[in-house]
Amino acid sequence: MALYEIASKLVSDGRKDQYFAKHLALSAEDANMLHMKYYKDYGLAISGLVTHHKVNPLEYNREVDDALPLDGLITPNPELRRLLEDIDKSKVKMWLFTNAHITHAQRVVKLLGIEDLFEGITFCDYRLLPFVCKPHREMFEKAEAEAGARSVEDCYFVDDSYLNCRHAQARGWTTAHLLEPDLPEPEERAAKYQIQDLNSLRAIFPQFFTNPSLA
Questions:
Q1: 3-state helix, strand, coil in the chain (%, to 5)
Q2: What is the CA radius of gyration of the chain?
Q3: Per-residue pLDDT, 4
Q4: What is the pLDDT of residue 139?
Q5: CA gap 95, 6 in Å, rounded
Q6: What is the C-alpha to C-alpha distance for residues 35 and 20, in angstroms, rounded to an integer?
Q7: Which contacts of 56-62 are long-range, i.e. CB under 8 A and separated by 24 or more positions?
Q8: pTM for the whole thing?
C-alpha cells in the first residue's frame, strides 16, 4: 500500500519477522531472510507461510497486521488528503487496491483520515483459500471487475512494490512506481513512470487534477 508511512512499514516488517521466528522456530536473522524470500517470491509473506507451513492466514492477520501499534505512527495526513480531494472525480473512480486483509486496510485509511475519499477497495481476502494477491494475474482481474473497469487502458495504478508495478505495466495498466526514499534507483524501471512523492502525480497526470499547477 503506497499510502504507508515509512515508520509504520518498519514496525510492520519487524512484527512479521517476529511471527516467522516464533512460529517456525527460527533465529532473528533466518526469520528476516525467509520473510524477505516469501515476499519476493509470492508478493506477500503470508502466501509463503500458507503454501509451505499451513499457517492460518486469519490467525496471522490477528497476530501481525491487526496487532500493529499504528495509533500515533499513522496520523491524519492533510497533504495527502488535499492531493486526493483535488482529483477530478468526474474523470477518475478512486479505488484502493491492497494486499492487506480488509480489517487492516480499513484501519490504515481511517488513521490517515482519507477513508471517505474512495468508492471501494479490492483486498486480499484471507478467509478464502487459496487466496490471491498482487502481483498475480487473478488479483488484477479481481480489481478490474470490482472497480468496474471497462478495459485495462482505463486502469491507472500507483504502488511502492517493484514487482507489483512490473506486472501492472505488463498487463497494460498505466503505472507509476513510488520509489521509497531509502531504496536505490533500480537498474531497470518497473513502469513507465517512477516517482518519489505522490504529489508528482499532478505533473504526470495533469488531466486528472483540478489544480495540476500545484505540483
A1: 50, 10, 40
A2: 17
A3: 54
A4: 96
A5: 22
A6: 7
A7: 57/101, 57/126, 57/129, 57/131, 58/101, 58/126, 58/127, 60/19, 60/126, 61/101, 61/103, 61/104, 61/126
A8: 0.89
Residue 2, helix vs strand vs coil: coil
Query: Within 10 Å of residue 162's Cβ, how many Cβ atoms?
Result: 19
The CA distance from 69 to 151, in Å, is: 39
pLDDT, position 39 = 87
Torsion of CA 180, 177, 65, 45, to 10 degrees: -100
Instruction: Give tens-digit pLDDT for 73-90.
Output: 888 989 999 999 999 999
d(CA 166, CA 154): 17
Reply yes or no: is the peptide bond before residue 76 cis, omega within 30 of 0. no
| Calpha distance 70→162 (Å, rounded) | 25
DSSP string across 24-66: HT--HHHHHHHHHHHHHHHSSHHHHHHHHH---HHHHHHHTTT
Q: How far apart are CA 123 and CA 49, in angstroms?
A: 18
At how many degrees (to 10) do helices 6-24 and 28-42 cross? 110
Among residues 15, 34, 14, which one has the least CA distance to residue 24?
34
- What is the mean pLDDT of the segment spanning 27-36? 94
Read off the C-alpha cell for 104.
487492516
Give the number of other Cβ atoms within 10 Å of residue 84's Cβ: 19
C-alpha span between 154 and 148 (Å, rounded): 10
| Phi-psi group of 33: left, alpha or beta (phi > 0 → left; psi -120 to 50 → alpha; rest → beta) | alpha
